[in-house]
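PROTEIN DESIGN WORKSHEET
SECTION A - STRUCTURE
LENGTH: 259
TOKENS:
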């Protein structure tokens, strides 16, 4: 009887269930590739079973530890800078009085989130290219450098550029939740602080930051699992041999973890 009453809801859930089955559960068969000698164009079922051979190749490679270190270090840099920049933007926007200016800033900072990471990476690759790149040309004309610099070919520069690109792309979107958390703070706390003579900075330090800290912790934990795969998208157009990192399902000189 209960099922009959919920028929409409059940039929409405059919598209979602189909999406889950087709795009979430069926692709799980791809995990078998890790244990087979699979070649593109070959049937997965006809590929030879090799067990843990690929894992052994990865773990015993001379540069595996360097790749692992780079992977965690870049994730940590991205996580820290991204979180702090999102919080800073949210706090600044919440303190501004001009609503029109706030809307303009929000729009400008949110838009990069909707641009494909591959597109963003290609844009910066062209801007920083040693062959006619805008940044190199500008630095040469200003006299700051004598010859073009291959930024993506230098490990130190790549770490910095990668972190800044990821942060620029996502900090505006991340600020949305922090703005919502700030909006949920009890106004009486601000009133009490103003009565006690607290400055704007003191109100931010002693009211805003402690109040949004549970949200910060939660989003940081949720972000840990999503930082790893972003580098695979930025490395597609910018891949060089000295960019040593671990990419999911990726084993080539660009990651320095395999032939």
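SECTION B - SEQUENCE
RESIDUE ASSIGNMENT:
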């Amino acid at each position: 009887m209960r099922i009959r009453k919920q028929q409409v809801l059940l039929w409405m859930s059919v598209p979602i269930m189909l999406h889950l089955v087709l795009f979430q559960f069926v692709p799980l068969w791809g995990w078998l590739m890790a244990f087979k000698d699979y070649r593109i164009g070959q049937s997965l079922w006809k590929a030879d079973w090799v067990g843990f051979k690929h894992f052994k190749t990865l773990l015993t490679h001379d540069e595996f530890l360097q790749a692992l270190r780079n992977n965690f270090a870049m994730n940590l840099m991205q996580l820290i800078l991204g979180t702090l920049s999102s919080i800073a933007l949210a706090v600044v926007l919440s303190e501004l009085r001009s609503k029109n200016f706030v809307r303009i800033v929000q729009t400008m900072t949110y838009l990069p989130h909707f641009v494909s990471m591959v597109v963003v990476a290609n844009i910066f690759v062209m801007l920083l290219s040693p062959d006619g790149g805008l940044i190199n040309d500008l630095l040469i004309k200003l006299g700051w450098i004598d010859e073009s610099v291959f930024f993506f070919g230098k490990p130190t520069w790549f770490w910095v550029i990668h972190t800044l690109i990821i942060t620029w792309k996502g900090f505006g979107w991340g600020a949305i939740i922090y703005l919502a958390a700030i909006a949920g703070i009890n106004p009486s706390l601000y009133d009490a602080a103003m009565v006690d003579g607290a400055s704007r900075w003191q109100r931010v330090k002693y009211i805003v930051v402690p109040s949004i800290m549970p949200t910060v912790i939660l989003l940081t934990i949720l972000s840990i699992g999503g930082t790893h795969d972003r580098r695979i998208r930025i490395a597609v157009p910018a891949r060089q041999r000295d960019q040593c990192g671990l990419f999911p399902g990726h084993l080539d000189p660009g990651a320095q973890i395999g032939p």
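SECTION C - NOTES
Residues 65-238 form a domain with the MetI-like fold fold (CATH 1.10.3720.10).
The chain is about 65% helix and 0% strand.
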